[in-house]
Amino acid sequence: ESVLTQSPGTLSLSPGERATLSCRASQDIRTYHLAWYQQKPGQAPRLLIYATSSRATGIPDRFSGSGSGTDFTLTISRLEPEDFAVYYCQHYGRSPLTFGGGTKVEIK
Amino acid sequence: QVQLMQSGAEVKKPGSSVKVSCKASGGTFGSYAITWMRQAPGQGLEWMGGIIPVLARANYAQKFQGRVTITTDESTTTAYMELSSLGFDDTAVYYCARDRYFDSSGDYYESGYWGQGTLVTVSS
User: What does the pLDDT average to over B77-94?
Assistant: First the structure.
């Protein structure tokens, strides 16, 4: 089981700024088994990125994912007001699946 | 368009069980894994287990082994998650989700479609 550690816990930024979120795994994971989700208060999570760097349908290109081995990154190039939310990384593939603890992106 | 509709909120007594349903519409039900997650108030997401209907196989997180049962009914395209021996710390929103992709490997994939969530409150 791969334990995922996200950092920072909270990121305080202004609209228009760049956000860089980190997800570190306790062991090497396959790049096609890493996803990112966005969750807003009172809503179900929404898939943003799968297979480390592929954007899900309808996701704007300001969201990008990268990484390999144990270190993965979600980048939001220019924050829009609707991007302030909590972001989770997930390792999938063989059971058990695991989630990181989340990074909250808040308005500075 | 794939949609997942979950059953309504529940209030349960400690020691009892709860069964949450997740009805799928759109897509091919049996081919894609259904997974269950939960989120305690103010906390992160926790994977509980999943099932790949076409392989008739369920997998569970070790934390919930022996206490959770995930099943599907292909005739009604509905998945179920039953959690027994409820404690106060089982109070959470429970989500079902369907994989975006399927292959014959038996792997789980990213959750492309989510239910709206079901609040389960354990209270005496």
Answer: 97
